[in-house]
Amino acid sequence: MSQDVSENRTDASTEPTVTLPVTPVEPPQGFVPANHPPANHGPQRPLRTASGRNNRIPVPVVPVSPAPAGAEARRAENGPPHAVRGVADPARNNAGERHWSPAPNRSAAARPATRPFVRARGRHAAMSRRQRWETRYVRTLVLADLAAGTGAGAAGFGLRFGDEVTLYNRAYMLLSALLPVVLLAVLAVSRAYERRYLFVGSDEYQRVIRGGVGLIAGVALLSYALDLDLARSYVLAALPSAVVGVLVLRFALRKRLHLARARGEALRRVIVVGHELSVIGITRQLRRERYHGLEVVGACLPPDADGVGVRGGPLDLPVYGTFEDVASAVEQADADTVVVLSCPELDGAMVRRLAWRLERDEVDLVVASTLIDVAGARTTIRPFDGLPMLHVEHPRLHGGSRLVKDLVDRVGALVLLMLFAPVLLGVALCVRLTSRGPVLFRQVRVGRDGQMFRIFKFRSMYVDAEARLTELRHLNEHDGVLFKIRDDPRITPVGQWLRRFSLDELPQLLNVLSGRMSLVGPRPPLPTEVAAYADDVRRRLAVKPGMTGLWQVSGRSDLSWEEAVRLDLRYVENWSLSLDLVILLRTMTAVVRSSGAY
Fold first, then answer.
1. What are the residues facing 268 on neighbouring strands?
2. What residues form DSSP beta bridges with 392?
3. Spans of biased composition, class Basic and acidic residues (predicted)?
4. How many CB atoms lie within 10 A of CB 232?
5. How are beta strands 337-340 and 364-367 bridged, if at all?
6. CA separation for the pair 289, 569 (Å, rounded)
7. What count of other Cβ atoms lies within 10 Å of the Cβ of residue 56?
8. Angle, CA of 420, 424 and 427, to the nearest 5°
9. What are the extents of the domains in the chain?
10. Which CATH fold topology does 267-392 show?
11. Buried b (16+ CB within 10 A) or exposed e, 277-312
């Protein structure tokens, strides 16, 4: 039955507006307005009644239906709910007290983090991840250096005194125990643990060598000044072996790091800032040389760039905006490094403001120089009337450093000839017995300053290889002036094995001993190749050719001609003894890997 109430309805617009007085309610003790949003500040709303409803709004009366039959019996049988089982405790219902408590709320942000890393205060999340693996790497370096010092001390003591401990050699036993600590201190003073010198490059090895030479010189001066009767055999056995052990262990740890980076681990997430062509070039290079540890995850382009070449194609690189959006791009891409390429839009003031923005999260800022393949050792910043000027020194192609290199080459070649004498004899017998022709292959090559000389190699081809070159010229797989075929039919079965492990190049030690070649340097070219060189490529002839070099340890024949030339020019411009040592160490792993050897 319905009731019509339309006749009792009145027009609300004709009634006067009544403003009800609002009485502000005092907050409880300890209430702080800052704990609440600004919209809640001001007059407080009236409190609700005990029933939880506003008493100004009439509540409709709803008839309560009678309980079904047997409900009381079932309620008595089931018992009280678990929430109220037992004696009720009014103190447990303290939601209001928790709400008005001055203590901070226990929110989700205060709970233990579920991420696999702990973010340091004031650091970006990606920076925290990088700090974790870098710290672990430095800790491993310290342990490796201690192990090298301990082994060198034990080896020096054993070689000089044997296993017997006497009253005379107890002092040397104490020196052997202190050698790891002293070695660690010397390396720390030489800044061999600073992270900017680690992970890639030859600066780390240079500092180890300088620290080792300083340690040997310091011990010699101290023993002379204090008139200490030190056993020379112990000093000459312990200290040099400690330096060599540190170098070998650090090289092994770096190779392990490079292998991890090849698997996508221990990488820096990089945002590249610059023009589209420059971004494409640096991204391709960093993806090809992953041992540098820089993974490009995004780019920021000029406002007028469409970014089609960056977003599409094999590059497939996200574009996060323009030069003004670098800081937000770091947050979106979770990056920890920003690489700024050379472009006229990014002047000094803009780069300085960018550095201020990235400083809060300690995101690294790297400004790429326009000086291609010029090492930092040749560049120094010198102020000129308040303006910093970048001074570039000439490469060390002459002078005392070259005399030291020639001495090291000839002594090293003599030592290697004596060590590999059995191998040389065995390879010579294999070549002689398996194919007709001479054991050694002699060929004219171009050396330093365009001088001709004859190179020696073990013969790895049949005797008619030069005559068959013309008919195989169309099968060339290299993109430059070199002639390379992966499955060359002119190579003998023994020659394939020799080329795989670079044993055919061992007779070049005779060329090094005679002064025509060096242990490390550019590849010795043929006269026909030099005739096709461009003017820039002729720079390779400024130094002696080498048995190994950056080209050989970076992929050999698998590299393009432009990449091979770039690596050779980089060596010419940035030569150093420590770089030669790094290349020699990398040569051993390249020979075992045998990639690009054909």
1. 294
2. 379
3. 1-12
4. 10
5. parallel
6. 17
7. 7
8. 135
9. 124-262, 267-392, 399-593
10. Rossmann fold (3.40.50)
11. ebbbebbeebeeeebbbbbbbbbbbbeebebeebee
CA angle 522, 523, 529 (to 5 degrees): 115
pLDDT per residue, tens digit, the chain (598 aa), is: 444 444 444 444 444 444 445 445 454 454 444 444 444 444 444 444 444 444 443 444 444 445 445 545 544 444 444 444 444 444 444 444 434 444 444 333 333 443 344 444 445 566 667 788 899 999 999 999 999 999 999 998 888 888 787 878 888 888 899 999 999 999 999 999 999 889 988 889 989 999 999 999 998 888 888 888 788 888 888 999 999 999 999 999 999 999 999 898 999 999 999 999 889 989 988 888 888 899 999 999 998 888 887 887 778 899 999 998 998 999 899 898 999 998 888 887 888 888 888 887 788 899 887 665 666 567 777 777 667 777 777 777 777 888 889 999 999 999 999 999 999 999 999 999 988 889 999 999 999 989 999 999 999 998 887 777 777 777 766 666 667 777 778 889 998 899 888 899 999 999 999 999 999 999 899 998 899 888 888 989 999 999 999 888 877 666 777 888 888 888 888 888 888 988 998 888 878 776 555 4
Amino acid occupying residue 411: V
**Distance separating alpha carbons of residues 22 and 198, to the nearest angstrom:** 70
Exposure class string for 426-460: b at 16+ Cβ within 10 A, else e = ebbebbeeebeeeeebeeebbbbeeeebebbbbbb
Cα angle for residues 227, 229, 233 (degrees, 5° grid): 135
3-state DSSP call for residue 398?
A: coil
Give pTM, 2 decimals: 0.66
Residue 248 CB: number of other CB atoms within 10 A? 13
Q: Give the strand pairing for 546-548 and 518-520.
A: parallel
End-to-end CA distance of the chain: 102
The bridge status of strand 268-273 relative to strand 337-340 is parallel
- Answer positive or negative: Cα dihedral of 413, 419, 421, 423: negative
**Percent of the chain as helix, strand, coil, to the nearest 5:** 50, 10, 40
CA–chain centroid gap for 247, Å, is 19
> What are the residues facing 298 on neighbouring strands?
271
Locate tokens 């065995």: which residue? 426
Separation of alpha carbons 424 and 510, rounded Å: 12
Q: What is the signed CA dihedral for 576, 578, 583, 588, rounded to 10 degrees?
A: 150
